[in-house]
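ingest -> validate -> predict -> emit
validate: passed (alphabet ok, no gaps, 289 aa)
predict: started
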Amino acid sequence: MPAQEGRTPPLVSLLAGGVAGGVEAIATYPFEFAKTRVQLRTQSGASSTKNPFLVVGQVFRKEGIRALYKGCSTLVVGSIAKDGVRFLSFDAIKKTLADPETGTWSPLRNLFAGMCTGVVASTFAVTPTERVKTALIDDARTAKRFRSPLHAVRIIYQEYGFLGMYHGYAGTTLKQAGATAFRLGTYNILKDYEQYRDIKQTTATNFANGAVAGTVTTYATQPFDTIKTRSQGAKGATTVNAFRSILADDGIRGFWRGTTMRLGRTVFSGGILFTVYEQVAALLKPVLR
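emit:
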């Protein structure tokens, strides 16, 4: 994934990415929970409160701390799979796109590699797990039909078939392609620049680079995230219907609902993700060469 001293073995990319994804998901889940609640509709059709901090406070008072982690296990499993696949495929794609003469990557090649990686991750990991996570969060505030992630999967399959797990695929894939392009692309551009300037790569540098990459990613891809969330509620919706409902409820600004909490999460998650990845990869490289 990020450029390291020498090439990173595929197994190291897979394992380090999986560990980093799991740690990041657990550490930042309350941000994700609040962001998702803000983006979902109430049963009457009107959106819920726009203040994510009020959402956290209300849920904590009424349902307790455990409610803030509703759907967390699904996200953790999805993040382990997503980031394992993402780091592994990014390394492979980036290697393919390297300049044949110099073996280096331009900023555009970095972004394109990230975009391709996002499509792979969305197809094989992100869309199904995000569908279950979002349905669990939505169901917990309405019908309360789902007893567990596995029960949610069973109900979704019974009611919508296999494709029900892929509600919101278009929005998720657009978000993942854009997010991965901007996050991995920005991180690698910053890291390449720092290496060119002989700036030492430390935990603080890795965290700062990841945080900057997360900020760029959030503002660039928030509309796709909002559409994805609406599509993946407990009842599900098509991407077109989700788009129309957001526009009808809140206008153009509605596509940036949940930005505050997602920004909080992506700044921290970007820092945590890349820092943990670099540290785990450094530990595994001598063992799994």
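The CA atoms of residues 18 and 84 lie 4 Å apart.
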